[in-house]
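Collaboration report, partner site 2.

Our partner group contributed sequences for two proteins of shared interest, and the home lab folded both. The records are reproduced in the order in which they were received, starting with the first partner submission.
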Amino acid sequence: MAEALPYAAKIRVGSHHIANLFIKNNHSVFWLSHSRHPIDTLRHSHHCKKNLLRPSLIEDTSFHYHPTTVLPFRNHFLLNTDFVLKNTLKFCIPALKTTFARSCFSSPDLLWLSQSPIANALSILFPETPSVYRISDRVREFDYYPKSYLNAELGLLKKAKTIFLTSREIYKDLPEDLQQKSILLPNGVHVEDFKANKDSIPLPPEFENIPGPKAIYTGTIGKWLDLELIAKLAQEIPNLQIIFIGPIETDIQCLIHLKNVHFLGFKHYRELKQYLVHSTFGIIPFLENRLTSAINPVKLLEYLASGLPVIATKLAALCEINAPILIAENQEDFLQRIKEVLNDTHPSQTAKEKRINFAQNNSWNQRFEIVLHAIKENNLI
């Protein structure tokens, strides 16, 4: 599996869950993260250094590895060329083919490729191995993907036996020949990782000093967030505490002076339940544009699995799934929806159960059945 994130990352994306389900179903998995330069390895954490020379064991015959290469692909002059993109994995220390062989992956049955800069290089290392490709974002809407990567992705899509898409909006972007081999595979959720009785879960330490109702957002704080909307909510409902959990990848200067907006930083996936069950409702306050219209946010199902009401911007990918959430037409409507939730002093247990049931009906186990059916139908494993 060629992935942008390390297997051991605090954040869990779709591929993490799919990898674990392959393992659970008695398949061996080799998770290959985005490559790094030797200097990166020397100056970064113990986690980076400990698997420099060999893969780390996930369990039994499955591994994860963060390769070191003297030719890393980066969005910088000379390092963002087609040559580097294609050959980055050929300059690994130690040689990647040797690493694969020592882990009994010299002849993999299938390449699972995601939107990672190493996907193309891995495909070149194993030109005869069939592949599938998973698209979760409109990457052309991001600023940091070089043209060489975007051009190479089209080649990977053409070569793939099956293309998995997280939303129907992405399907519309593809030419007809690629649509014919595309399968809708939205994000899912492991309900047991989020469903809990509030009384059985201790209050997060940070929440002890944050009284009152809490709107929570989990995930990367990026350019897709409507910061103007968030500031408006904080100012017009001063007793509402707005909680953000995740890495900050955009300018938040317009929010940091607001006393009821709190950035709690990174939390591990397994810690999210604690914060969600002690929150009042979940929010997805996205801007409306080409990037967000195709997003199928995994946080949506995680909120629902926790039993939380959810208020979200009106996005095409959210409207198409018919989830039991409150969708806001605009900023004023978002504000009104929040007031409705806050004024509901006796939340319906039936509504909560409906949210949890929706999450259960969209589990990662069910998503994986789609994956297995497609792979077996194409005789890939």
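Second partner submission, folded after the first:
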Amino acid sequence: MKLYLQLLLILSSCVLRLSAALDGEVLETYTSSSGRMVEKIAFNDTQHDYVTVSYPKGFDASKSYHINFWYHGTSGKPTSGIEDSLESYIGVGMSYLDKDKVPPNGYATKHWESCLAVERNFTKRRKVKISRRIVSGVSKGGWMAYYMSLEPLEGLHGTGIIAAGMHQGGVEPIKSQLDHLAVFVGTGETDSNYPHAQMAVDFFKKSKIHSFCYEEWLEEGHVSIASPRTLEWLKVQGKRGGPKNLLVEYAEKVVQQKLEKIQKLEEHTQKYIAVRHLLYAPTAQYVSAQTKGVIKSLGKELTAQAEVKSWLIEYHKFRSMVQRETKFYHDGRREPELLGGFVKGYQKLALESAYPSIARRASYAYMRNLKNYTIEELKEEYLATTEYPSLKVEFDALNKKVSTSSAPSQEDINRRQELFSKIRTLALDAGMQGFYDVEWHKKMQPDAKVEHVIKSGRVSKDSVEAYSGHGF
């Protein structure tokens, strides 16, 4: 009987293996809502066991294409990303590797290897050549793109970090090996990850990489937006793989068109915002020295105007608060009472600023911090009713002992890991409490006066200010 059961188990496992799709097998082909042809391809040992490859309309295998490997957020699925409207890009919706397939220190490298494995599969089958490779993602996928940005991954030309950034400080800016890498960071101004995006901005500005571009999506939260600036960045990364003169011609054309629009603006402050936005545009670094000189001269001319000088004083107040908020997260701080200080500071600026654009941005920063403050306050209340405080005391003491010992015992190391897992689980549970707490949501409602500032200061998505949050 025992032998019979063993044979039955072996036979069952063989049937399962035979029924499972092989890596690279096309499971389904369909047309997306944007008109792209999409292949759903088997990719085992991943969370979804498949990836998707999205081909642009009019796909022609005799041409060379670029790839955007897109990583979704925590609750998402493998789909194409921000490249969807660009005919020069193939989109690959990636699936995360199963945790047991990833070594502790090889998270980014192993996932990059999986990207290349998917590429080898469909390029061989489709007989298509790839020119440039981008990895981008939103939320959890944005963190993936960030970690890949830190590694010298062969064949990777750019990363798009969206609704994510750096967890906290301690990572030294990149000094070598990545001078080929272009990085884009995009975030909504009410996104709770906004400070982490700001940390990434500071980090990559100091790093020796090929180029860096940043954008805030005003009035938006935890989202991914294929904005004009985002698409411009993708186009530039694609053209970097071709003749330099074609990239320069494209950049000159785009920048000249923007300059013409800016010259038509009548209000000096609006014109100044637009000039600064243009100065840090993806195309701006590829234009001639003469064109760059025109942009800088226009900016200098505008800063001499009295209304621009006055606006800049107020704007620097706002940026100073953003920098303090960023440092707070950089240092790993989460105390509700300190977050409450940011809530009050942004609220004050929102109600007192004479400039609608600054009042509106301060009001959204107030909203972001009100949300984070409420979350942390609720977490503290919840955790105080659990074993978290005692576990944290034990963990801190044991962590210090293990970290300072030249030969810590395996028992202490195992206990530290056990405590860390328990603490982390309790903290995650505490963070989820608010989603089911009606009173928590009530606390997140803005002050009526600030809400009025928000409603009265909303801007058109086509206006100069709609995409002006470049952190200058």
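Feedback sent to the partner group on the second submission included the following. Residues 311-380+442-467 form one domain. The first helix runs from residue 2 to 19.
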